[in-house]
């Protein structure tokens, strides 16, 4: 372990890394419930059991690549947002009316993954990461912090939708809201007293409190409303992994030949969101783990990006949407994870989930929400590193990155606004010579993205 992961060099221990890996898994285990639900809905029509298995296997594979090849504490799985785009925009929109539209969507994910492998091999994505100005990187990290905190608040029902103001406070009489706030308090107190594994303990204690609320009748189980039982239910069949046969290698290339231009747009959309979600996540997690070098660059970033590219190709073959780096990895980093041993633990937990799915699927959103809220607090602290004086492009670009990200519910959108503002101000203030050539290409892609969103 020491020689392979270089634990002493990173000032960490096996116990710390394993605890961090388990924490990361618990904060992202919701994807094992959400992905089958999204891709298995009638609009998309995939086999939910097969999607569950495919998601777990592809997540484990990609995370192991990250662990053993890149040696970073970053876990990967089917990206939130990308799976919704897969199910509702592609299957339910672009391909609406087709029989089994998901087969074309999986083909698009396959092509996207292959393109990413080529881009990663030729270090195009690596060059993009390293070309982003430091102030933008800090803004991206802070924005991700606000974004994941918002995910936690939303998942617990503390923040809910409102027609007039878009968002408002949720109902404090709801058990999920109250228990989440108690969980935040418990986690924060344990952090104050430097309790080892405080984030993981916060998740588990909040879950146990939820089980107690269910037993006394406060938390009411209503499957049709999405309120599932918090008490794991085991049957003999629950220990047997579901087969991926219904979705394995199920591609439909026939439609593509007759609708090439439409297929290209679908692939580009997957490509765009995945690329910049991954870049933003990698920068944010690496910054909080102090993995960036003195120039703000991430060593071995090419291997990091290759992990999600290979994972995406493998996932499409098994039958799941785009695999990408998960921002919840920052929960493990906050727990002390610094090496690939953290990722290896998370990957192992994905394999275990194949046999113990009732346990992992019973942990509710309000139990993992305190972890996301507290981790958001740590990541948002990167705003202290930002410069709000000096070069206007750097200042405004970084500001827009962390502002737009949570407000548009997209890491990619935050990066897009930040970079386009940075580029535009640089040009308008006569600093064209200071713009890295890669940034011209990146901004051109963002402009093209804006055009495709308009037409």
Automatic annotation (TrEMBL):
The keyword Iron-sulfur is annotated on this UniProt entry: no
Major place of residence: membrane
Membrane topology category: Multi-pass membrane protein
GO CC terms in record: plasma membrane
Pfam families, A to Z: Xan_ur_permease (PF00860)
Subcellular localization, as worded in the UniProt entry: Cell membrane
Key words of the record: Cell membrane, Membrane, Transmembrane, Transmembrane helix, Transport
Keyword Transport: yes
Membrane-spanning parts: 20-39, 51-72, 104-124, 136-160, 172-191, 198-221, 263-285, 305-327, 347-378, 399-425, 437-454
Domain of life: Bacteria
MF terms (GO), sorted A to Z: purine nucleobase transmembrane transporter activity
Family named by the database record: Belongs to the nucleobase:cation symporter-2 (NCS2) (TC 2.A.40) family. Azg-like subfamily.
Protein name (record): Permease
Organism: Blautia hansenii DSM 20583
């Amino acid at each position: 372990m020491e020689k392979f992961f270089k634990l002493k060099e990173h000032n960490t221990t096996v116990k710390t890394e394993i605890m961090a890996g388990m924490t990361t898994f618990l904060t992202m285990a919701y994807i094992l419930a959400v992905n089958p639900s999204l891709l298995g809905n009638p609009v998309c029509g995939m086999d939910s059991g097969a999607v569950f298995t495919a998601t777990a296997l592809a997540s484990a594979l990609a995370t192991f690549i990250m662990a053993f090849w890149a040696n970073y504490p970053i876990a990967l799985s089917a990206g939130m947002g990308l799976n919704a785009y897969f199910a509702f925009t592609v299957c339910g929109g672009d391909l609406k009316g087709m029989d089994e539209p998901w087969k074309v969507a999986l083909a698009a994910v396959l092509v996207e993954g292959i393109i990413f492998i080529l881009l990663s091999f030729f270090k195009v994505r690596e060059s993009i990461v390293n070309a982003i100005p430091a102030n933008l990187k800090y803004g991206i990290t802070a924005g991700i912090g606000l974004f994941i905190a918002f995910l936690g608040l939303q998942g617990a029902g503390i923040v809910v939708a409102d027609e007039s103001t878009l968002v408002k406070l949720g109902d404090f009489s709801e058990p999920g809201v109250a228990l989440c706030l108690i969980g935040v308090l418990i986690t924060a107190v344990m952090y104050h007293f430097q309790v080892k594994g405080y984030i993981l303990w916060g998740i588990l204690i909040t879950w146990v409190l939820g089980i107690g609320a269910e037993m006394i009748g406060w938390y009411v189980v209503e499957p049709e409303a999405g309120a599932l039982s918090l008490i794991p239910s085991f049957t003999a069949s629950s220990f047997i992994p579901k087969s991926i046969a219904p979705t394995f290698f199920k591609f439909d290339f026939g439609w593509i030949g007759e609708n090439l231009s439409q297929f290209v747009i679908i692939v580009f959309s997957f490509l765009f969101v995945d690329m910049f979600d991954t870049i933003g996540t990698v920068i944010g997690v690496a910054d909080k783990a102090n993995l960036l070098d003195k120039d703000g660059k991430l060593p071995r970033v090419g291997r990091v990006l290759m992990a999600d590219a290979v994972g995406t190709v493998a996932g499409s073959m098994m039958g799941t949407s785009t695999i990408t780096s998960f921002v919840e990895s920052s929960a493990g980093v906050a727990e002390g994870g610094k090496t690939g041993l953290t990722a290896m633990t998370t990957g192992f937990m994905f394999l275990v989930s194949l046999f113990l799915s009732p346990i992992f699927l019973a942990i509710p959103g309000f139990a993992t929400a305190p972890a996301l809220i507290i981790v958001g607090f740590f990541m948002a602290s990167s705003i202290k590193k930002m410069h709000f004086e000096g070069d206007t492009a750097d200042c405004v670009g970084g500001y827009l990155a962390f502002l737009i990200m949570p407000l548009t519910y997209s890491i990619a959108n935050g990066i897009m606004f930040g970079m386009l503002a940075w580029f535009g101000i640089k040009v308008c203030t006569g600093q064209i010579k200071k713009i890295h050539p890669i940034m011209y290409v990146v901004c051109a892609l963002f402009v093209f993205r804006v055009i495709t969103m308009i037409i």
